[in-house]
Amino acid sequence: MDFYKDLFLMQQTYSTLFSVTNKLQVQGDQYLQSLTSRQCMAMVAIVHLPEGGATLNNIARKLGTTKQSVKQLIDILEKKGYVNVVPSKQDKRAVNVGITESGKQVLMECSEKSIYFFAEAFKHFTTEEMEILWSLLKKLYRFDGEEQSGFEEEIEFERDNLTEVQSRAMKEFARLRTESEMKRRSNE
């Protein structure tokens, strides 16, 4: 076993992952405009938590970050009027975060814009490559024994009940993915 090569590959993987994360965040911020990528992901985490379970600790756990970092995000979102913070009924030391109507609206706008961002960021990936990448990232997440509490569960999204904007965005996404697939095949 070549331990020097293993160490080199680990360092390169970590450095690349760090750079990719920052690049995706910066580019995502430009696409989303109304929210930063981190603010958007905090709101997505809230949506993926059960009713009454969107505490700062649970949001932090969902995002793989600290309670303090989430507190800063939530404070900004609350000042923008996108979330409200109320005392938890289950735990007197905790607060529950809910998304306001204007927060739901901006989250829908960002969801539509993110479709274009995802199409651009993953245009060189096949479905199979994305499945492999996701699997490997989840494996890396477990390095400390903790499983990722991700975003796999379906939220209220009915394919047959899309709004006009959602339907248009999904059609455009399908067009972009088909175009990317055709380009990939022509380059093989």
C-alpha end-to-end distance: 34 Å
Q: Helices and strands, in N-to-C order?
A: HHHHEEHHH
Compute the average pLDDT. 90
Number of H- or I-type helical stretches:
7
**What is the tally of beta strands?**
2
Residues in β-strands, percent: 5-15%
Q: What value does the Rg take, in angstroms?
A: 19 Å
Model regions low in confidence, pLDDT < 50 over at least 5 residues? none
Shape: globular
Strand order of the largest sheet: 1-2
Structural class estimated from helices and strands: mainly alpha
Give the proportion of residues in helices.
Answer: 55-70%
User: What kind of sheet is the major sheet?
Assistant: 2 strands, antiparallel
How would you portray this structure in words?
By secondary structure, this protein is mainly alpha-helical. It has helices at residues 3-32, 37-47, 56-63, 67-79, 101-121, 127-141, 164-187; strands spanning 83-87, 95-99. The model has no long low-confidence stretch (mean pLDDT 90). It starts with a helix and ends with a helix. α1 (3-32) packs across α5 (101-121) and α3 (56-63) packs across α4. The longest helix has 30 residues, at 3-32. Pfam families: MarR_2. It comes from Paenibacillus residui. Residues 1-142 form the HTH marR-type domain.
